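pinning this so it doesn't scroll away 📌
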Amino acid sequence: MILLQKYTNDFSKMIQQYQLNDEPLCYTGTPEMPIKISLKNSFIHPIVGIDDGRLTNFFVFR
């Protein structure tokens, strides 16, 4: 079961290790930029998906 949580600095190490191969990168970006934007814009909400202690998903609610 995937647990969805709002991103906090507790997940920063997982984000640093999160890798996408070339195919998904042509459709999306990496999590770092939305996280930086969310620090200055309260309407941006980064969300992480955690399954069995691993980061499996990242997306943003606006």
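📌 and the second one:
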Amino acid sequence: MALSTEDPDDQSGCPSARGGGVLPDELRAWMLLLAATGSVEQRLRSAVKENLGISHDEFLILCLLAEHPRDGVRMTRVADLLGRPKTRLTYQIACLQHAGLVTRKPVRDDRRGVEVALTDKARDQLRETSTLLARTVREALADTMGDTQRAALCSLVPDLAGEAS
């Protein structure tokens, strides 16, 4: 199920994209958005593995940490933000720590709490690959939706607004 051109009547990749089908507009739109994000995720998985040598889920952790202060984020907060079980996150953080990409330290005043932060190595790798990875996302979106649809998506996700043109 893929989005195609600017013209909503020319979305032959999805039989229900023309409307008048069984699905209500909201569900149809959701399914089309999932198709677009699935395409992006598939390409990004390959690019991340090839360029950073880590899994897509580990990459998402690095991206989340990159958007937070250098002193770290509580692991429970990372789990909540990513919608990951804490046990799975603990394993992924251990892999990232072994690769020298994150550090873990106890939370002051809370014996059970753990904070995780990016290392300088991780920040450097993200800086070096961010343009390539952004291009991967842009190309995947271009293949799954037209200019009008991409602009609409960017209006929903303000950080993408500069990438729409």
